[in-house]
C-alpha cells in the first residue's frame, strides 16, 4: 500500500542551513549535507531544500550543495527557491535534485509550468501555493513573500490552472497557520483536496504529534514540517509511530 | 563496468552514485561502444513515454538495447526506462516502444495521479532482484504502468513483481537478461541499495 510521506524542509542560503537546527551531537548544524543525512537516517521519506539566498552569488553555491547532498542521500530531494527559467531546473536536476518547486516565478509567468513539465515531465514539478483566507470567490487567495503580498488570484482556481498546465504535486502552505504551531489548516486541505487529483503536500502549522494524522484525514498525501523537527520538539520516528498507531500506512 | 545510458535530462548523478556503492566502475555515457561493451547497462528515464523514446532514438539507444538483448547482455530499465522496453505506450497518444518486452504501458486507474511515494511490492517467486529484501517499500513516481501482459508472459509468476495502486501493476520484471523496475531503486534508501547490489551480482 502507498504510504503517507513525512518530509522535513530545510531553509538554505549560500550553501548553508539558516535557522538553527537543534540536533544533539552535530558537528556542524549549518551543513546541509550532514543534516540531510541525519534526516534520511531518521526515516524521512523525502527531503526539501528551500533556497532563500538573497544574491545570485549565494544561489550558485546551491548547486554545489545539491551535488554534495545527492552524493550521499538516497531518498528523493526537492529543491525550491530562486527558480526563474527552464535552464535553472535543468541545472538543479543535473546536480542531483529529483524535483523542483516553484512559486512566484509561475505566478509571474504561468507558461513556465508548461515549459518545465513538457521538458522534464510533470513528476518533477512541485507547485508551491502560499494561500490565505481572503475575499475571493473560493475564500482563499494566492500570496507571495511569505504571505505579505496579495496577488488577487483565487487560490482554488490557481490550483486547477496549475494542474491543467502540468504540475505534478501541490505543496499547500497555509499562510494563516504557518508558524502558529496550532495544527495544519484542515479546512484548506479539505477544500483543495476536493478539487485536486494530484498529490497534496500540506505545510504550515504542525505543532503537536496528533496534528499529523488530522492533516492526513483531511486529505493530505504527504506532510511537510520544518521547525518541529529542527528544534527537536519530536523526531520523525515519533511522528511515524503515532501515525502507525492511528492506523495510517507509513514506511519505517 | 556498468554504463548508465545518458540520453536526456534528469537526475543521473544519484543513479551514478548509487551504482558506485557496489564498487564497480560506473560510466554515464551516450557512446554506443561503451554502452555495448558494459557488463550491465542501466536505462534510466523520466518524463513522457514519447519524449523519452524520441531522445533514446536520437542516440540510437533503441538499437543498443536490441543488440544487447540479442547477445544476452544485461539491461536494467528504471521508471520510464522500464516502460520504453515494452511494445507500446498510450501516454499522449499511441507510441511504439523498443519492444523487447511484450505488453502495453497505460494510464493507471487511480483517483490521485501521479503515484508518488513509497509503496510495497509482491516480489516474483524466483526473483533475484528482491533476494533478501522483505517487507520493504520502494520509491515510485509515475502515472503509467503495465497492468496486463500477454497471457504467456503474465502466467509466468516467476518473472513478474506486482504493486497495487488503484489497480495491480507490474512494478518489476526479470525476463532473461532484461531486468526493470517501475520504482527508483537509486532513491529507495537501503532497500534500493540492496536491490542494485543484487542486480550487479547477476552480471
Helix content of chain A: 25-40%
Largest beta sheet of chain B, briefly? 7 strands, mixed
Write down how many β-strands of chain B occur, each being a DSSP E stretch of 2 or more residues.
13
| Mean pLDDT reading of chain B | 93
Tell me the strand percentage band of chain B.
Answer: 25-35%
**Element-by-element helix/strand order of chain B:** EHEHEHHEHEEEEEEHEEEH
Kindly provide the name of the CATH class of chain B. Answer: Alpha Beta
Tell me the quaternary state: heterodimer
**Average of the residue pLDDT scores of chain A:** 92
Q: In terms of structural class, how would the helical and strand content of chain B be classed?
A: alpha/beta
Kindly provide the radius of gyration of chain A, computed on alpha-carbon positions and rounded to a whole number of angstroms. Answer: 17 Å
Distance between the termini of chain B: 10 Å
Task: Explain this structure.
The complex is a heterodimer of chains A (252) and B (203). With 252 residues, chain A is an alpha/beta fold. Chain A has 10 helices and 11 strands. Chain A has helices at residues 32-41, 56-70, 86-95, 104-108, 111-120, 155-165, 186-195, 209-217, 227-230, 236-245; strands at 5-13, 16-17, 47-51, 77-80, 99-102, 125-133, 140-144, 149-154, 169-174, 200-203, 222-225. In chain A, strands 1-3-4-5-6-9-10-11 form an 8-stranded parallel β-barrel, surrounded by 8 helices. In chain A, helix 1 (32-41) packs parallel to helix 2 and helix 8 packs across helix 10. The longest helix of chain A has 15 residues, at 56-70. Chain A is globular. By secondary structure, chain B is an alpha/beta fold. Chain B has one domain (2-200): Class I glutamine amidotransferase (GATase) domain (Rossmann fold), CATH 3.40.50.880. Chain B has helices at 13-20, 32-37, 49-58, 61-70, 80-83, 151-154, 189-201; strands spanning 2-5, 26-29, 40-43, 74-78, 86-89, 95-96, 101-107, 115-120, 137-142, 144-146, 160-165, 167-175, 178-181. A 7-stranded mixed β-sheet of chain B has the order 2-1-3-4-13-12-11, with helices on both faces. In chain B, strands 6-5-7-10 form a 4-stranded mixed β-sheet, with helices on one face. In chain B, strands 8-9 form a two-stranded antiparallel ribbon. Chain B starts with a strand and ends with a helix. The mean pLDDT of chain B is 93. At the A-B interface, helix 3 and helix 5 of A face helix 1, strand 8, strand 9 and helix 7 of B.
Amino acid at each position: 500500500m502507498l504510504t503517507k510521506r513525512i518530509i522535513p524542509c530545510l531553509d538554505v542560503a549560500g550553501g548553508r542551513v539558516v535557522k538553527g537546527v537543534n540536533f544533539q551531537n552535530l558537528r556542524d548544524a549549518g551543513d546541509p549535507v550532514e543534516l540531510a543525512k541525519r534526516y534520511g537516517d531518521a526515516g524521512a521519506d523525502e527531503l526539501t531544500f528551500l533556497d532563500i539566498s538573497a544574491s545570485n552569488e549565494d544561489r550558485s553555491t546551491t548547486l554545489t550543495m545539491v551535488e554534495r547532498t545527492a552524493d550521499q542521500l538516497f531518498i528523493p530531494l526537492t529543491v525550491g527557491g530562486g527558480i526563474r527559467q527552464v535552464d535553472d531546473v535543468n541545472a538543479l536536476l543535473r546536480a542531483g535534485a529529483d524535483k523542483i518547486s516553484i512559486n512566484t516565478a509561475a505566478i509571474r509567468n504561468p507558461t513556465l509550468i508548461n515549459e518545465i513539465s513538457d521538458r522534464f515531465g510533470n513528476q518533477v514539478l512541485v507547485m508551491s501555493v502560499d494561500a490565505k483566507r481572503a475575499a475571493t470567490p473560493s475564500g482563499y487567495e494566492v500570496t507571495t513573500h511569505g504571505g505579505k503580498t496579495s496577488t488577487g488570484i483565487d487560490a482554488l482556481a490557481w490550483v486547477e490552472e496549475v494542474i491543467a498546465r502540468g504540475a505534478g504535486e501541490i505543496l499547500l502552505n497555509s499562510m494563516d497557520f504557518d508558524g502558529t504551531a496550532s495544527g495544519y489548516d484542515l479546512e484548506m486541505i479539505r477544500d483543495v483536496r476536493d478539487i485536486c487529483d494530484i498529490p497534496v503536500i500540506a505545510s504550515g502549522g504542525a505543532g503537536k504529534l496528533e496534528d499529523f494524522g488530522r492533516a492526513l484525514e483531511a486529505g493530505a498525501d504527504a506532510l511537510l514540517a520544518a521547525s518541529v523537527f529542527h528544534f527537536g520538539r519530536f523526531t520523525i520516528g515519533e511522528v511515524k509511530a503515532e501515525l502507525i498507531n492511528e492506523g495510517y500506512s507509513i514506511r519505517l | 563496468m556498468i554504463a548508465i545510458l545518458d540520453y536526456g535530462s534528469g537526475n543521473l548523478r544519484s543513479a551514478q552514485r548509487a551504482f558506485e556503492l557496489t564498487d564497480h566502475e560506473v560510466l554515464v555515457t551516450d557512446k554506443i561502444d561503451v554502452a555495448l561493451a558494459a557488463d550491465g547497462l542501466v536505462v534510466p528515464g523520466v518524463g513522457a513515454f514519447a519524449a523519452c523514446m524520441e531522445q533514446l532514438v536520437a542516440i540510437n539507444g533503441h538499437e543498443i538495447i536490441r543488440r544487447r538483448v540479442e547477445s544476452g547482455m544485461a539491461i536494467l530499465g528504471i521508471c520510464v526506462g522500464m516502460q520504453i522496453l515494452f511494445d507500446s505506450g498510450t501516454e499522449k497518444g499511441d507510441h511504439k516502444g523498443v519492444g523487447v518486452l511484450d505488453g502495453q504501458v497505460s494510464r493507471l486507474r487511480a483517483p490521485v495521479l501521479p503515484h508518488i511515494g513509497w509503496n510495497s511490492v509482491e516480489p516474483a517467486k524466483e526473483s533475484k532482484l528482491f533476494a533478501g529484501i522483505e517487507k520493504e517499500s520502494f520509491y515510485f513516481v509515475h502515472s503509467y504502468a503495465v497492468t496486463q501482459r500477454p497471457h504467456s508472459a503474465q502466467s509466468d509468476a516467476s518473472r513478474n513483481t506486482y504493486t497495487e495502486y488503484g489497480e495491480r501493476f507490474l512494478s518489476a520484471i526479470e525476463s532473461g537478461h532484461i531486468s526493470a523496475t517501475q520504482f527508483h531503486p537509486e532513491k529507495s534508501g537501503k532497500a534500493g541499495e540492496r536491490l542494485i547490489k543484487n542486480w550487479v551480482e547477476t552480471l
